[in-house]
Amino acid sequence: MTSNTLTTTEPTPPPSTGEMVSRLLHTLGDPDPARGAEDITVVGADPLVPSVHRLADAMSAAIGVFGRQMAAVGEQRGHRHQRVQVQAGAAIDQLMATYHTTLSGRPLGALLDDPTLLGNNDFYRARDGRWIFIITTYPHLRDAVCSVLRCGLDKVGIAQAASSWDAFTLEEAICARGGVACAVRTRDEWLAHPAGRYVAQRPVVEIERVGDGPVRPLEPIGEADEALAGVRVLDLTHVIAGPVAARLLAQFGSDVLHLSRPDRPDPIPMIAMTGGGKRNAYCDLRDDHDRAAFHDALKHADVLLTFPMGCRRDVGGVPRYAWAMRYAQGGGLRAHEQAARERVRMLAAEGFERGGKNTVIAKDLRVSVRSVERWRRDWRAHGRAGLRCSGPAKSPKVGPQEFAGLEEELLRGTVFHGWPNERWTLSRVQTLLVEKLGVWLSIRGVWELLRRHGWSCQQPARRAVERDGAGVAGWVKETWPSAKPSRRRAGPGSSLRTKPLSR
After folding, report:
1. Cα–Cα distance measured from residue 182 to residue 167, given in angstroms and rounded to the nearest whole number
2. What average pLDDT score do residues 434-441 get?
3. Which of the two ends of the chain, N or C, has the fewest CB atoms closer than 10 A to its terminal CB?
């Protein structure tokens, strides 16, 4: 979140909506951005809502460019030339689709099993007077917030607990637990933050060629066909941005299959808002059958929609996002861990050779029956060789040379890198990895990386700056002996509580 109400520098003059459109078309590779911009008309302009941001202009430009791109694809496949018109007021409504969408006449909020999941998403005032936006949309995000704040599942409880924290400290604590929170920053504070500096160096839209694949020309279509008819899309995204992008592709005729883990489904309102025109299925990549089905779907897809982090390279044809569910950071197991796993599989092979049952072997080795079933299949096909380790673990993302460079940056301190105090946290190291090495690791992955290189977790001591150590020592030595009460003299007592001598 950013705000320019407290900024100390003059921002550059904002571009017009037409300039936004031309820049976006140029970034997307339009051969004639000026001509493309002429085909887009925006009716209305900011300010339409009380915000320091040009929400209507920015949204109108994005919608107009998307419409123009879809029209261009249609023209390449046989459609006549089309122009695009965007109503700025309707563009604002798109940003508030959650509040406008209904299902059978009922608002989306009424469809939640737990209305507080979305209802508690809000800005909360912290102890230092700043505001922080806390998200509890999913159960695991709600649990992360509650584990930090140790409060009830209502706005009042969250507000009271948040008021005892400083905003930046609370932001880091929630994110370190796997939750989502964002402290409100001024424009200058955001531009000075490592994440803000990194984003400022990147274009609004990045296009990177990650590899070559077989070219499948789009076939000609009739005037009644949608521009993306016949295009197959595999959607692995969640929440809002990715699912809405996939829904728009479905709206223009593409065949979209959305996959999600059965234990991490999207809330019903989000499915209702973003799932239109899609086919949906559960897929757990920890399961052999599901993983094989995913491979097959991926081979036949024209477009893969996934999250930005962890998918820049492939592992065996599967995006790293998929493998991250099973092996942290795609790094696999260390050599001694692989050897330990192999010993367990060899013990299972001995059980197979004795004719043991899967359930008995699984119980004896303390593994799942499904794992034993998989090992038995491999043993039948290849013998013991099929159960041996396939080789060393994949090289880590951050090697010794890269970590040496990271360590130099860590020793410079956090203030040098734009944070307000001298305290390294896992979330700050995570940000530094992205900014300096272009490598993203989970919070747990960051901790494992630091631990492997000898770094330890330290709890900073809290001590008042006015503390006088010498004065405290002198008081304990000289004043306290004369001030403390003397011990009561021993005397005859009684077991009866009513007798004076017992007191």
Report:
1. 8
2. 82
3. C
Q: Which pairing describes strands 131-135 and 122-125: parallel, antiparallel, or unpaired?
A: antiparallel
Quick one: pLDDT band at residue 335, thresholds 50, 70, 90? Answer: low
Question: What confidence tens digit (pLDDT) does each residue in 247-286 have?
Answer: 999 999 999 999 988 887 777 778 888 888 899 899 888 8
DSSP state of 44: -
Task: Label residue 378 exposed, middle or buried (CB < 10 Å: 0-12, 13-18, 19+).
Answer: middle
Return d(Cα 439, Cα 430) in angstroms, integer. 9
Q: Which band of pLDDT confidence, cut at 50, 70 and 90, is reported for residue 487?
A: low
CA distance 172 to 182: 9
Asked whether the predicted pLDDT for residue 222 surpasses 80, the reply is yes
Three-class secondary structure of residue 433 per DSSP: helix
How far the first Cα of the chain sits from its last, in Å, is: 65
Q: What does residue 255 show for φ and ψ, rounded to 5 degrees?
A: -95, 105
Task: Work out the widest C-alpha separation in the chain, in whole angstroms.
Answer: 111
Q: Helical H runs in 135-267?
A: 139-149, 155-162, 167-176, 187-192, 194-200, 241-251
Q: What is the DSSP letter of 230?
A: T
pLDDT at 8: 43
d(CA 276, CA 248): 9
Alpha helices in 260-413 (DSSP H): 268-274, 288-299, 320-324, 335-353, 358-365, 369-382, 400-412
